[in-house]
């Protein structure tokens, strides 16, 4: 049994799909407190901040702790979760017909080990259909996701090329964690 220190429904879905027993206790780390706009640095610092908050709250005596963070970068910009419809639309339009990368960092700590992993999955997307974009934004599925994209959903038909794990792009590089569980 592990503690998923995340509010993310997607991370919970990923653990379930790999039959990993967990309880979910998300934190309240303020990612706006992070000063850097370097995507990789931001992602690591957010993960570290989440870890420190939840490690001090729960420790690892009763079970290991897993935290993670994901950001998207496109044209050198740092894309986090969309704040509103306009934000989501501009993020999605930026990534249409473009190259984009999802960076996911995780920290896993048990009594035996501490794993820190930063992985990147890069996509080459075709132009997104305008009507598709409208429907996707109206569905609200673009919210709560880094860069407002959903690689296993909205983006899937537009993937021209991908390098890296889909799980990394969804927020938790589970294949990198499995060998340590
Ligand atoms: N379903 C889906 N979710 C994605 C995708 N890309 C990123 N995400 C989610 O986007 C969210 C990125 O925000 P984070 O700040 O890392 O995590 P969070 O959801 O706020 O949850 P915490 O871990 O409690 O911070 C995570 O929930 C990721 O699982 C994707 O392609 N598909």
From TrEMBL:
It catalyses: a ribonucleoside 5'-triphosphate + H2O = a ribonucleoside 5'-phosphate + diphosphate + H(+); a 2'-deoxyribonucleoside 5'-triphosphate + H2O = a 2'-deoxyribonucleoside 5'-phosphate + diphosphate + H(+). Its cofactor is a divalent metal cation. Signal peptide: none annotated. InterPro entries: ITPase-like_fam, Maf-like. It comes from the Bacteria. Belongs to the Maf family. This is Nucleoside triphosphate pyrophosphatase. It comes from Aliarcobacter thereius LMG 24486. The gene is yhdE.
